[in-house]
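Dear support,

I submitted the protein below through the web form. The confirmation email said the job was done, but the results page showed an empty box. After a refresh the structure appeared. I'm attaching both so you can tell me whether what I see now is the final result or a partial one.
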Amino acid sequence: MAAQVDRGELSARVACSMPRLQDELARLVSIPSVSASDYPEETRPALLEAHELILDLLQDAGVEELDSHRLPQTAPFITGEMPAPPGAPTVLLYGHYDVVPAGDASKWDSPAFEPSVRDGAMFGRGTADSKSNVLAHVGALRAWDGRPPVGIKLVIEGQEEVGSALNTYPQTHPDLFRADAMLIADMGSVRPGLPTLTVALRGTAMPRIEVETLVGPKHSGQYGGAAPDALIVLIQALASLHDENGDVAVEGLRREEWSGASYGEDEFRSLAEVLPGVPLVGSGGLGSRVWSGPAITVTGIDVPSVDNALNAVAPRTRASLNVRVHPEQDAVEAQEAVLRHLRAVRPFGVELEVRAGATGNGFSADTSGPAYGAAGAAFEAAWGTAPSFAATGGSIPLVNALHEAVPEAEILLLGTTDGYANIHAPNERVLLDEFEKAVAVEAEFFARFAESWKGAAS
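What the results page shows now:
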């Protein structure tokens, strides 16, 4: 049964809970729960410590049906359930407790795993990505005394940053994840003060190119000019992927203009830390360049180092690409378009060996359902204004898995972070005001969604 909580008291209850939530966030951030793709022995103790603390916090928030699942080479993920009151919908809450490494300690103003509060923010690795989002779930449930007016399911994983076997698990166990709406708490505001729902994620593909032209390196003075240089061949092929404006020049890759909230050019330059005098690449709106259009990045290339360079014609080389794909385009289809382009290039008549790599589809939300209507009302209540719609060029692997497992569920991406939070960078931080508003939005959403569900059924 739902708690008898006065709706007018929700924001006050959330505000009163924030000192405790901040203390709990500091405890969680102090655990260096860095994930790794093969879940090695040295990372296990911290991941398990964070996992156990979150189990305790969820139990304290009223989640009684908790379980921990262990898949091969994967940090354990948590599931939980709170049965829905009669006639109420069920909401799945997602988050992750793993973090990326701290990186260069000298770049941090305070130690990465010693959380520090200053200037209205908490600094530390994982504050924004994404431990405050996990605590937002805890806070929203506490606001309802552990008895929200909707059913609850929980999925809190420990390997989002590097991928794991969980990313294919929901399709084979859909009942575990079945819900009417899903709140994916791994996002936040485009910029501080602009409440935002993320409604699209680009997909990804990672093809490779290899070039082999000679049995071995040959002296450039004796053979250069006629002997085919594998590195020059590769550079020519890579250059063909973009036109003179810097736009992707591969036929078959989908691009559309973005109509939602986006960054201004000066703002984007600052966030991307583009050097003075260096222009941005591409044409059209920034939203279409980084969210609703393709991007191709050379993520690795085998070349001799300048310091140890020899006067020789290169016999072989290779490169790895990262292709970002329109949210609604199939990533395998997009990768095949890139492979076709590269096979057809043949610089100086040399054939390239191109290989398909891993792919992941993007996501585009249907915003017309009752959960989005309830979310809009919840943002209005917490922020005093409706949310903007935005997208991201990154990806959350589990989102697609959940969408495929439960296609009828509305998926909403939201959270505590913002575009200036320095996730995956030194001095990561979460703004405490936005942390509080994220808790308030989620708590209010439970009520609004239950009301809209009841209204639709009557």
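Response: this is the final, complete result; the empty box was a page-load delay. The first strand starts at residue 65 and ends at 69.
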